[in-house]
Design brief:
162 residues, mainly alpha
């Protein structure tokens, strides 16, 4: 994370929360969505996820039925045992992890079930999807702990000024 944009990104993201919220509320979604893949790629080049792993340390993905079936099979567990061991139901009725950080996160920030991880993990941080614009509350939350989300928001605001 040598890029100057990333210096003190956590503090800057917190300071810019109102700016991000206003931008996400007033932006013309169709004018922004097509920019996301390039900005996602640019941000991903600047940030080393393995040196960060904030998502795995602070966030739980939703575990959908196909995720539970796949992961429990890979771990050699019955689905019910997998659920009892690792998951709980959150306020929205989704299965999420009981503990933080993720129990599948190693000390080296590698995921022990990476090839079979939940679809939410595969898609995170959603910076190349319309979810980024259509679900601003999630984007704002993610900007507080994910430097890629921060970079994409900063760049979106910058490119939309011109």
């Amino acid at each position: 994370m040598s890029d100057s944009l990333l210096e003190n990104w956590e503090a800057k993201s917190k300071e810019h929360t109102k700016l991000y919220k206003g931008f996400l509320q007033r932006t013309h979604k169709n004018n922004v969505i097509y920019k996301l893949p390039d900005l996602h790629e640019e941000a991903s080049q600047k940030v080393d996820c393995l040196s960060c792993a904030n998502c795995c340390k602070n966030y739980s993905p939703r575990f959908k039925t196909p995720d539970i079936k796949r992961i429990s099979k890979v771990l050699g567990m019955k689905e019910g045992n997998f659920i009892d061991t690792y998951l709980k139901i959150d306020d929205e009725g989704d299965y999420v992890l009981i503990t933080k950080p993720c129990p599948f996160l190693g000390e080296d920030n590698y995921c022990s079930i990476y090839e079979d991880r939940p679809s939410d993990c595969k898609r995170f941080p959603y910076t190349d999807e319309d979810v980024f614009i259509k679900r601003p509350a999630i984007t704002l939350k993610n900007a507080s702990f994910c430097p890629i989300v921060y970079v994409v928001l900063e760049r979106l605001i910058e490119v939309n000024k011109s």
